[in-house]
Amino acid sequence: MEEGLNSVLSGLEPAIVWRMFDAVRSIPRPSGSEQEMTRFLCGFASERGLAHLTDAVGNVLVKLPGRGPASSGRPVCIQAHTDMVAEKLDSSSHDFLRDPIDVEVDGDWVVSRETTLGADNGMGVAIMLALLDGGCESHPPLECLFTIDEERGLTGASHLDPGWLEARRMINLDSEEEGHFCIGCAGGVDVGIEGRFTPVPAPRGFVPLSVRVEGLLGGHSGMEIHSGRANAIRVLGRVLRTLIDGHRCAVASMAGGSKRNAIPRTASALVAAPRDGLEGIREAAAAIQARQREEFSPVDGDVTIAVTASTTTGDALPDSVMPPEFASRAVDLLLSLHHGVERMSCLSKGLVETSCNLAILESGVDSVSLVLTARSLVETAKYALVDRLDASARLAGFSHSRGNGYPGWKPDASSELLAAATAHHRGLTGGEPLVEAVHAGLECGIIGDRVGGMDMISMGPDIRGVHAPGERVCISSTGRFWEFLRGLLARL
Questions:
Q1: Which residue range(s) make up the domain with 463?
Q2: Is position 83 annotated as part of the catalytic site?
């Protein structure tokens, strides 16, 4: 791997960690396509003579014997997921199934400008590889667990054979703030909503218009849901409501979002519009854009609503469109379904308890479908929200389904692992760490549920902008976290 080290990263410290991160960012691994990473991990273990297991879905467990004074300690599982959210700017030609992630150094940060960086959770994977490559002089036996497909629904953790793990202590490396120790997380469940229609002929004499919402920040639907950022699907709904009611437009198709755990950054629709109403439509779209920018100016003020005629886009007027009554119901559903924070926690100031992400919108020749993700620290609250989403679907005449549910992780303030990590942090910094639960879903909930009796903690270096282009990881924080983790393992 020395020969393949990206020259941009070659001077960074700790060198062993950045060398491993360079290897990770070079391997295509969007969620659902981690096969090459699984092969790499097995080969990495074999080259070093380390015992390893892999299963049918692609999870990998690599065992590292204890070393140094801590070698006789009870085993510890170190865990991270191998997949990444594959998001890019519309202007980017990046192919996530083929191309390495382009990176650059910007001050104290490593960043990918046009795509997600994959530091979530590629930095955790890199740190585990550095441990397996001999980067820690003293540690108990380590069971390094690499899981697949976390971002789409925690699939790898859900398929984990609990017999794989001897360890009943686990350090998860999927957190993104140095000095923060996570000891609990929200559970989640996906809700699918679908409506079907019989297409009708497109209005005669109408012309096709492309409507596109873009310029939004997006972000992680758990960690950023409280920020109040705009949702492109919701903005599209506001535009379509105006075009249907005031400008006689017919809707041919609509789409938005692409990941269940990312706040949608873009959305679009193809509509049939009266030829003599184009100027009024553009004025209406400009007025909505101005209102949206004012509404979201503190947090997401670059909302752009582009209305483009077919002469520019190349779109042809479709033969058929959605029936007006169905299109109206579908748009009403976009506007009425919950998105954002449902309730804040009564137990921890500033912590979101329950939320919903209106995540994905798609349409076919005779259907419109939606995917939403409900999260909560409280199981009953999660399913109460899902019940309300189901009710909204029924009122609109749409069907509904549930899938990809996963349990939360109940905090344990008496954790021995937490006590050890806190004492080590205090000794290094003289201060106290921030101990918290998070609204995002972590694999700890599923692994703890499947294995049982697990003492768990989640931690990591500073990573910002996850699940969106421009994601970045802090160089100095990575160095400090690496030293912290090595010191913690030495005292376990």
A1: 15-186+408-490
A2: yes
